Amino acid sequence: MHNSWALAAVLSVMATPLLACEAAQIGDLTVDHAWSRATIGAERPAVFYVRITSAGAADDALVGLSTPIAGMPMLHETVVTDGAASMPHAMSIPVPAGQTVELDPGGYHGMLMGLTTALKEGDGFDMTLTFEKAGQVTIPVEVLSMRADRSSCADAD
Ligand SMILES: [Cu+2]
Questions:
Q1: Mean pLDDT on 128-138
Q2: How far away, in angstroms, is 2 Cα from ligand 1 center?
Q3: Is the Cα torsion angle 77, 19, 42, 69 positive or negative in sign?
Q4: Which residues pair with 26 in a beta bridge?
Q5: List of domains in the chain
Q6: What number is the average pLDDT over the span 80-87?
Q7: What predicted TM-score, i.e. pTM, was given to this entire model?
Q8: Cα–ligand 1 centroid distance for 54 (angstroms)
Q9: How far does the centroid of ligand 1 lie from the alpha carbon of residue 10, in Å?
Q10: How many angstroms does the Cα of residue 87 sit away from the middle of ligand 1?
Q11: Residue 17 phi/psi, 5° resolution?
């Protein structure tokens, strides 16, 4: 009896990545399409991409990230100047009223420094996003291959 309970608990943990296409809601904001890429090791930073949709009448902003798998998650922006790309730290990412903002490989993204473990394709982890006005919301993140350029959930809608 106890064994089957323990097994059920393990299965529910392992099932988390399958929930990666779920949306999370906080106030007027919907957060979905959360994904990342496999890393070569734990020494390299991982990336974090997500879609944020505002149904509200007031502007908001993404001001922070936190996750159990990284000691120092940061917000970055990819900027190309004269053909050279750089990734300055972003203090916040604007979420204008009524609009959709995508963190994606060409622009704003999360950079997860200080990984506690390498990320493998098929893994999943939780990410908590902090918004200036709406507050905090946690979403499951799917880990795709190193070559992925969009969420696998994007095909579903
Ligand atoms: Cu970066």
A1: 98
A2: 45
A3: positive
A4: 29
A5: 2-150 (2.60.40.1890)
A6: 92
A7: 0.85
A8: 24
A9: 33
A10: 5
A11: -60, -30
